[in-house]
């Protein structure tokens, strides 16, 4: 049975229960309590287990929007079931062991540290598209940080998110040149395809993208470490 059919069935059961209560048929009303609770639990599990559901009936859509997902009977059991249908502990540790750490000769901003850690965790939890998207964020955050710290870009540009006159190619060009700049910029453009919704990626693609990103970032910090002003 589809989630739409389940929702419509619950709506019908609720209607019958309301009619029974209004007419004083208490026996029928109590008989319908358990079927309603069971249907709600099935819908909760379906909504928790899937990110997108196509539901054409407007009544079914309204009912599903009203399902409370945080009020779950046996939440620990449900959590274990959902997690283990997706990932086992040994898979998490093995995946995390494949991801590089960022090695930098100078302190980096806390935001960059958080982005790198989130990318590593996303890979471990088998979220390759998130890893790919964060790889672009990591590269851009590092480039912005270095440009500001060596005095080649005003700090307010990054703070106000006003890059109209400072496209990534210009910022990267302040830090790199020749084949290194070309490779880094080509890498950035590849990452942009997913951010702009043009593609999805595999786990292998994500791992490669993150490794290359961290390599570029590490290299940029190493090249400009002596010109850094202040601390992250």
Using the 3D structure, state the CATH architecture of the largest domain.
Answer: Up-down Bundle
> Which structural class fits the helix and strand makeup?
mainly alpha
Would you give the CATH topology of the largest domain?
Four Helix Bundle (Hemerythrin (Met), subunit A)
Tell me the overall shape. elongated
> Which percent range describes the beta-strand content?
under 5%
Distance between the termini: 55 Å
Number of domains: 2
The biggest sheet amounts to:
none
Evaluate the radius of gyration. Answer: 26 Å
| Total helical elements | 12
What is the H/E string?
Answer: HHHHHHHHHHHH
- Arithmetic mean pLDDT: 89
Query: CATH class of the largest domain, please?
Result: Mainly Alpha
Which stretches are poorly predicted, pLDDT < 50 over at least 5 residues?
none
How much helical structure, as a percent, in the residues? 55-70%
Number of strands: 0
Oligomer: single chain
Would you write up a description of this structure?
The protein has 232 residues and is an all-alpha fold. It folds into two domains: 3-83, no CATH class; 87-227, Four Helix Bundle (Hemerythrin (Met), subunit A) (Up-down Bundle), CATH 1.20.120. It is 69% helix and 0% strand. The protein has twelve helices and no strands. It has helices at residues 3-23, 26-31, 33-49, 58-66, 75-84, 89-98, 110-124, 128-149, 155-159, 168-173, 178-195, 203-223. Helix 1 (3-23) runs antiparallel to helix 3 (33-49). The protein starts with a helix and ends in a 9-residue tail after the last helix. The mean pLDDT is 89.
């Amino acid at each position: 049975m589809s989630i739409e059919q389940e929702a419509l069935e619950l709506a019908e059961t609720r209607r019958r229960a309301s009619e029974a209560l209004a007419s004083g048929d208490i026996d029928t009303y109590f008989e319908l309590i358990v079927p309603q609770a069971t249907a709600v639990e099935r819908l909760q599990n379906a909504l928790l287990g899937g990110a997108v559901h196509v539901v054409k009936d407007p009544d079914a859509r309204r009912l599903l929007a009203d399902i409370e997902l945080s009020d779950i009977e046996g939440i620990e059991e449900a959590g274990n079931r959902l997690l283990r249908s997706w990932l086992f502990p040994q898979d998490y540790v093995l995946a995390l062991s494949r991801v590089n750490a960022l090695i930098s000769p100078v302190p980096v901003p806390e935001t960059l540290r958080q982005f790198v850690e989130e990318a590593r965790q996303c890979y471990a939890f088998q979220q390759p598209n998130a890893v790919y998207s964060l790889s672009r964020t990591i590269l851009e955050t590092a480039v912005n940080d270095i440009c500001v710290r060596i005095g080649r870009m005003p700090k307010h540009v990054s703070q106000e998110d006003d890059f109209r006159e400072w496209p990534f190619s210009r910022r990267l060009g302040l830090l790199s040149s020749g084949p290194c700049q070309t490779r880094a910029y080509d890498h950035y453009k590849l990452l942009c395809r997913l951010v702009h919704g043009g593609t999805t990626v595999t786990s292998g693609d994500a791992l490669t993208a993150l490794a290359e990103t961290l390599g570029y970032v590490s290299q940029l910090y190493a090249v400009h470490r002596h010109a850094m002003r202040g601390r992250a």
